[in-house]
Design brief:
- The protein is mainly alpha-helical.
- Helix content is 59%, strand content 3%.
- The chain contains five helices and two strands.
- The chain has a two-stranded antiparallel ribbon.
- The chain is globular and about 45 Å long.
Length: 140
């Protein structure tokens, strides 16, 4: 079997219908807000695979933040630190808000937890919530 010439095309899927993409995005947010980080990751991964290049880091950042909080809930400090750091790096350029989400709040909570982990503390996790700042998707 021939490999694709463009390595970045691996794992990509066709673009989603906008209504389906919005449904999956909101489903992922609801799952995240209920501390169902693995399930949120799965919903957002579908979006990430279908996203245009300029949106891929946004979805991957959300996925990595969710993975970080999942690792933290499972007492995997190293995994939490790694995924939170990766997610913060990807989400930063989209702040303060993107797709109607108050990213600064999510970024702030992840930074707070990461600082505790870096200081050797075991953060007490009050699950963060992703808050919408607008009723419709909004770009930067």
């Amino acid at each position: 079997m021939d490999e694709p010439n463009d390595a970045s095309s691996r794992g990509r899927t066709a673009a989603l219908d906008p209504a389906e993409a919005d449904r999956l995005f909101r489903e992922g947010v609801a799952l995240f807000n209920n501390a169902r980080y693995w399930h949120a990751h799965e919903a957002w991964e579908t979006l990430w695979r279908a996203a245009p290049d300029e949106e891929r880091d946004f979805y991957q950042g959300l996925i990595q933040i969710a993975a970080g909080f999942l690792h933290l809930a499972r007492k995997n400090r190293r995994g939490a630190r790694n995924k939170l750091s990766e997610g913060l790096a990807r989400l930063g350029p989209y702040a303060p808000a993107h797709h109607g989400v108050a990213l600064n709040e999510l970024i702030g909570k992840a930074e707070e937890v990461l600082a505790d982990l870096d200081a050797g503390a075991s953060p007490y996790l009050i699950p963060p919530n992703i808050r919408f700042v607008a009723s419709t998707p909004v770009d930067r």
